[in-house]
Design brief:
There is one protein chain. 48% of the residues lie in helices and 12% in strands. It is of the alpha/beta class and 788 residues long. The longest helix is centred in the N-terminal third of the chain and has 23 residues, at 20-42. It is built from 35 helices and 19 strands. It is globular. It folds into four domains: 6-212, no CATH class; 245-282 and 443-589, P-loop containing nucleotide triphosphate hydrolases (Rossmann fold, 3-Layer(aba) Sandwich); 286-438, Sulfate adenylyltransferase (Roll), CATH 3.10.400; 626-786, no CATH class. InterPro entries: P-loop_NTPase.
């Protein structure tokens, strides 16, 4: 048996050690999890299930989730923990502190491993293989052990490491030999010189190295081929749309924070497009690969659908994996039929909606029932099916198609596919776009044009017709119910769903949108749904036969974007509406740099950005559900002194704000920093973040004549210019405030206001200052001003 290349491990560790702070955060959770498991063993083993769920949610998306194989069927896990050999192994492992102790106990470890292997072969400990065993050994002693599993496959040769795990059993002595070499004195000394104290940290860095150029590492570190920065602004520019960085950043963070954003401003400034493009970005990626020989596509479609109907999902095996494991689910996987003996030859018979992916043979027991279709169609038994595939796709929907391959577009090359592409597809996959005939699944966004005759919510949510005895559904209701179902079924892996209301103020928002406004401010329950519900009907038969519930609570993965234009055909928003949304004005137009450069982001980077945004919006499954603790923590980080004094000087004019606005400003700051750190958006500094929050949450309430607004606008303007305001400023008259801001000119001099606009770049809060100046100019010119 050749020796492991530990020198190469040291080189990799040195390269990846820049992630040490990241690792330190998760190792604490590993130690906490181990302690809780040990306590649960002595009291109630079922608590381990709960602790495991909490631990897996915490490490979700982190490299630990990719090296620690902890995906057990709950029933199996209780069985494992109740087995004396499995428990004995973990107790033995937990006592080892150094190489000498390992040498003394390795015989016991090997004996436990052999006993477990024997029981597995006797079908007593089903699915308990090296990936699971070594993961739990690592949990109980991360210093001396690390997980051994298929995650190491890409670097086995590079590390001169022999694979001793996977389908067909394992060699206990060879596994012991791996740990002997990993704990050899000179190697551990070299690790300690690098500040590495545990083998789990080594595993963490090895996985970082494996993923280099893919997934999270690609998102954060690699430059796209065309040298564009991989952020939301670059994506929008590559799509042909020009926005300022502040517009993009405040839109995205406001949506993440509140979930209800109103975009106002110039016609044709891209208000609707920015929402649509974000929706397109979050749409399911589509990939295509070619089937192998002996395809029976028609029977496959039927059996897959039947399996999904029985169990809620089916499992589709694939070989070889190609790059498919780099795409985070969900996605659409189209199958090209390259078997000339099949009736669908040279066509795309169907696509499957993939919700989860596992690479390797250690699939959970739960997944095995999803393989039933393969036995029905091809006569596979489950073990043979698993042994002959490398990647397993959890399928939740089948999309029948049957069109020629020429109907599909190769996204990266921008052309229609031909049968000559089959060989290229068979060796991996390509990104594609399906023709409209096959695109019958719902996108994660819906576009609705508001009509002037909307008087209530019937055209949005439908209504019960007592004459027909049926509920007349709408596309929006179906969309909301899809978002609810997705969230209930998939939790932290659900998609965000965006409602786009175009020309929102063509009708009275307070009339047709009243139900939404009410429930959005009712708070969230423990599951993330709005506390109050929107009532739809009260007919049992409609609920039973049509599947339309009597009421719906809005899920936390539902977002609303409204666009508005202000002219003589539209209605003004009431303070009630403005208070419940983040209001963003699209006023700036950069013709000097228009049109944007035509550089296309390659699809790998689009998918990488999509994955990053999904992870950011999902917030570990919480989406828009912010706990009181999260809000309080955000408020504590806010400089409340500035907010408080600004609120106090505005109070005499009834333009002050309540607790909700403070909470939302605080959350906006918190979310902006998080999304900036991930590279999705950017801000000049933290002052700009606070500036944009003030602009969106304070100024939209300013609406009225000169007598009402002049003094408060001057107070806001002074605050924006200097970053400070005092209680005594509220006692000053308009003339004194004017001179402090503009100098010696007379109050109401619009030329002075216009001149000041050129100096606004030097303001502490320039966005708020610029808007206050425009409103002040409007106030002096026409005697009236409003935010929009």
């Amino acid at each position: 048996m050749k020796r492991m290349n530990t020198e190469r491990i040291i080189e990799i560790v040195k390269e990846m050690k820049k992630y040490s702070i990241e690792f330190e955060k998760v190792i604490e959770k590993v130690e906490e999890f181990r302690r809780r498991v040990e306590e649960a063993w002595k009291k109630d083993k079922k608590d381990v299930i709960r602790y495991l769920g909490e631990f897996e949610r915490y490490i979700s998306g982190n490299e630990l989730s990719k090296v620690l194989y902890l995906k057990h069927d709950n029933r199996r896990l209780i069985e494992y923990l109740g087995d004396e050999d499995f428990r004995g192994l973990l107790e033995e492992v937990s006592k080892i502190t150094d190489y000498e102790e390992f040498s003394r106990r390795k015989g016991n470890i090997a004996r436990y491993l052999e006993n477990i292997k024997k029981k597995k072969n006797e079908k007593k400990l089903i699915d308990l293989g090296p990936a699971i065993i070594t993961s739990w050994m690592t949990i109980f002693n991360p210093k001396m052990f690390m997980p051994l599993g298929n995650w190491l496959n890409p670097i086995l040769e590079e590390l001169s490491l022999e694979k001793n795990w996977g389908f067909g059993g394992w060699d206990s002595n060879k596994i012991i030999r791996v740990y002997e070499e990993l704990n050899e004195e000179n190697f551990r000394k070299e690790l300690e010189e690098q500040g590495i104290k545990t083998l789990l940290e080594v595993a963490y860095y090895l996985k970082k190295y494996i993923d280099k150029g893919e997934n999270e590492y690609e998102i954060n570190n690699l430059k796209p081929k065309n040298e564009l920065k991989n952020d939301l602004r670059s994506y929008l520019e590559a799509s042909g749309y020009k926005y300022s960085q502040s517009q993009i950043s405040q839109f995205y963070v406001a949506l993440k924070t509140k979930g209800f954003v109103i975009l106002s401003g110039l016609t044709g400034s891209g208000k609707t497009k920015i929402a649509q493009e974000l929706g397109e970005l979050l749409d399911l990626p589509q990939v295509m690969s070619a089937s192998g020989p002996n395809t029976v596509a028609k029977r496959e479609i039927k059996s897959l659908q039947e399996t999904i109907n029985r169990h809620g999902f089916a499992v589709y095996g694939w070989h070889p994996p190609g790059k498919i494991s780099k795409i985070k689910p969900p996605f659409i996987f189209w199958v090209y039929d390259s078997d000339e003996n099949d009736e669908y030859y040279k066509k795309v018979p169907y696509g499957i909606v993939v919700r989860d992916v596992i690479v390797g043979k250690n699939i959970p027991e739960e997944w095995r029932k999803g393989i039933e279709w393969a036995k029905e169609v091809y006569g596979y038994d489950i073990e043979r099916y698993i042994n002959e595939h490398d990647v397993f796709l959890k399928v939740v929907e089948v999309i029948p198609c049957g069109l020629e391959i020429s109907e599909f577009i190769d996204v990266e090359e921008g052309r229609n596919l031909t049968t000559k592409d089959a060989q290229r597809i068979r060796s991996g996959f390509i990104y594609v776009k399906a023709p409209e005939e096959c695109r019958k699944w719902s996108r994660p966004y819906i576009f609705l044009s508001v009509r002037p005759d909307w008087r209530d919510s019937k055209l949005l949510l439908g209504y019960y017709n007592p004459i027909t005895g049926k509920y007349n559904k709408t596309k929006l209701l179906d969309f909301i119910m899809q978002a609810i179902e997705d969230y209930k079924n998939n939790g932290e892996n659900a998609l965000p769903y965006i409602i786009i209301l175009d020309e929102m103020n063509l009708a009275h928002v307070e009339y047709y949108f009243a139900d939404f406004l009410s429930v959005l401010e009712s708070g969230r329950d423990e599951k993330g749904f709005t506390r109050e519900s929107i009532k739809l009907h009260d007919v049992d038969e409609v609920e039973e036969k049509q599947g339309v519930p009597k009421e719906i609570k809005l899920p936390p993965n539902l977002y609303i974007v409204g666009t508005v234009n202000i002219d003589e055909t539209t209605y003004m928003f009431s303070p009630k509406v403005l208070d419940r949304a983040f209001v963003i004005e699209f006023h700036e137009v950069d013709l000097e740099n228009y049109p944007p450069r035509e550089e296309k982001l390659d699809e790998d980077h689009v998918v990488a950005l999509r994955n990053l945004i999904l992870e950011d919006l999902r917030r570990d499954g919480k989406f828009l559900n912010y706990s009181k603790h999260e809000i309080n923590e955000a408020v504590r980080e806010l400089d409340l002194s500035k907010v408080r004094i600004l609120n106090e000087v505005l109070e005499p004019y009834d333009l002050h704000f309540g607790y909700r606005v403070v909470d939302e400003i605080a959350l906006f700051l918190k979310n902006a920093k998080e999304s900036r750190e991930k590279g999705i958006v950017s801000f000049e500094n933290e002052d700009e973040i606070f500036d944009l929050a003030l602009l969106m949450k304070v100024l939209p309430k300013f609406h009225g004549n000169r007598r009402k607004l002049e003094k408060p606008l001057l107070l806001v303007l002074k605050f924006a210019k200097t970053g400070e305001i005092r209680e005594e400023d509220a006692e000053k008259g308009e003339e004194e405030l004017w001179k402090e801001i503009f100098g010696a000119s007379e109050v109401g001099d619009t030329k002075a206001v216009i001149k000041e606009m050129k100096r606004v770049k030097d303001y502490k809060y320039k966005h708020t200052g610029k808007k206050a100046l425009r409103m002040l100019r409007q106030l002096y010119e026409v005697g009236f001003a409003s935010f929009s």
